[in-house]
Write a structure and sequence with these properties.
alpha/beta; TIM Barrel; disordered C terminus; phosphoric diester hydrolase activity; Xyl_isomerase-like_TIM-brl; DNA-(apurinic or apyrimidinic site) endonuclease activity; Probable endonuclease 4
Length: 297
């Protein structure tokens, strides 16, 4: 029996060969959650998901145990840019991301808040206004999840307060369509100490945004030290976070229903490495469940 805290657990999987190829890769690692790019993440070229592709994707997904499908948007998008040309292009691209998610029936679209470049407050306003414009262009059910960042350079979103400020600026009617994605590597690098103050970090998240806003978790260890402001993912329990915070996450009842996705290094064999990382995470939940059962007996 799968422990409840690993009920929605998976990885970012490749779409090489087309989106319908992603679900079999998720199945190969026994994933129950899956994250994909719906286009090439480092190119501006946009595309629509045609009916045949959506049907093939849906059929492939039905052959898996995946119950939460997530997209991550393009790395080129910068809704906070002060450059009007780049910002307009970013809004168009972001709207296209939302259209593909709706066509494919993806529950969540994870997005990094942009880089403000000039003034932080102005960047927060531009980011929020760009999100509002795109959501108004593309009505639907996909929930946008603003991802916590490591705070490198002029990146927004390194604090829970900044994410809250972006959401608060949105029209009230759009706010239910926006949530948060917490990345363990990013928040640790940004100065949230999940290792020695796990409960404090979760409490601050709840106080600032509300745990109901937490819709996706990215589980990544970090190659760099605490508060490094650098975004460098490491294998689970093999970086500066170590095992403890992941064990806490996998046994935290408040997070049981939140999809958890790894974006850890793939090494030479993506399937083997991802399978090993997911089994490691499941073991944390399983060990806790077994211990609790023993105590009851």
């Amino acid at each position: 029996m799968i422990p409840p805290h690993s009920d929605l657990l998976g990885a970012h999987v490749s779409t090489a060969g087309g989106l319908p190829q992603a679900p079999p890769r998720a199945k190969a690692i026994a994933a129950t959650a899956m994250q994909v790019f719906t286009k090439q993440a480092n190119r501006w070229a946009e595309r629509e998901c045609e009916a045949d592709e959506c049907t093939a994707y849906g059929s492939a997904l039905a052959e898996t145990d995946v119950r939460s499908a997530i997209a991550h948007d393009s790395y080129l998008i910068n809704l906070a840019s002060p450059d009007p040309t780049l910002r307009a292009r970013s809004i168009d691209s972001f709207a296209a991301e939302l259209r593909r998610c709706e066509a494919l029936g993806l529950a969540f679209l994870v997005s990094h808040p942009g880089n403000y470049m000039d003034e932080r407050e102005a960047g927060l306003a531009r980011n929020a206004d760009g999100i509002a414009e795109a959501l108004e262009r593309v009505p639907g059910k996909t929930v946008l999840c603003l991802e916590t960042t490591a705070g490198t350079g002029t990146a927004l979103g390194a604090t829970f307060e900044e994410l809250a400020a972006i959401i608060a600026r949105l029209p009230a009617a759009l706010q239910p369509r926006v949530g948060v994605c917490l990345d363990t590597c990013h928040v640790y690098s940004a100065g949230y100490d999940l290792v020695t103050d796990y409960d404090g970090v979760i409490a601050r998240l709840d106080d600032t945004l509300g745990l109901a806003r937490l819709r996706v978790l990215h589980l990544n260890d970090s190659k760099t030290k605490f508060a490094s402001r650098r975004d460098r993912h490491e294998l689970i329990a093999e970086g500066s976070l170590g095992e403890a915070p992941f064990r806490r996450i996998m046994t935290d009842d408040r997070l049981a229903g939140v999809p958890k996705v790894i974006e850890t290094p793939k090494l030479d064999d993506a399937t083997a490495t991802d399978s090993r990382m997911l089994e490691r995470l499941r073991s944390y939940a399983g060990t806790a469940s077994a211990a609790a059962e023993t105590q009851r007996v």
